Amino acid sequence: MPWTQILFRMLEVFPQTKTYFSHYADLSVKSSQVRTHGKKIIDAITSAVNHIDDITGTLSSLSTLHANTLRVDPANFKLLSHTILVVLALYFPAEFTPEVHLACDKFLARVSHVLADKYR
């Protein structure tokens, strides 16, 4: 499941992100908690795609949650975006053309910006 790979890879490649998941008993790729949270991430991104004309409104509650309750360092949104691009390239090498890469990068940069919005 690509969504499990996204969160797992981010936690492995950027170990500083593990601090936000210290309550998870298992951070392995087979962890049900990693799978569940990875699915939440993909669902949020899917929602942003489906509401591309209002990404800010669509992700507003997530931005508030991450800023005010979870207090996630907003730099981690960029790390997650990078990891998503890597996993897309690995799972869909033929489809991940330079043009697709650019479009996904622009979209994920917008998502990262919106998620970091409540920090300002």
Automatic annotation (TrEMBL):
GO terms for molecular function: haptoglobin binding; heme binding; metal ion binding; organic acid binding; oxygen binding; oxygen carrier activity; peroxidase activity. The keyword Iron applies. It comes from the Eukaryota. PROSITE patterns: GLOBIN (PS01033). Residues 1-120 form the Globin domain. Keywords: Heme, Iron, Metal-binding, Oxygen transport, Transport. GO terms for biological process: hydrogen peroxide catabolic process. The keyword Mitochondrion does not apply. InterPro entries: Globin, Globin-like_sf, Globin/Proto, Hemoglobin_a-typ, Hemoglobin_oxygen_transport. One of its GO terms (cellular component) is haptoglobin-hemoglobin complex. Pfam families: Globin. Belongs to the globin family. This is Hemoglobin subunit alpha. It comes from Acipenser ruthenus.
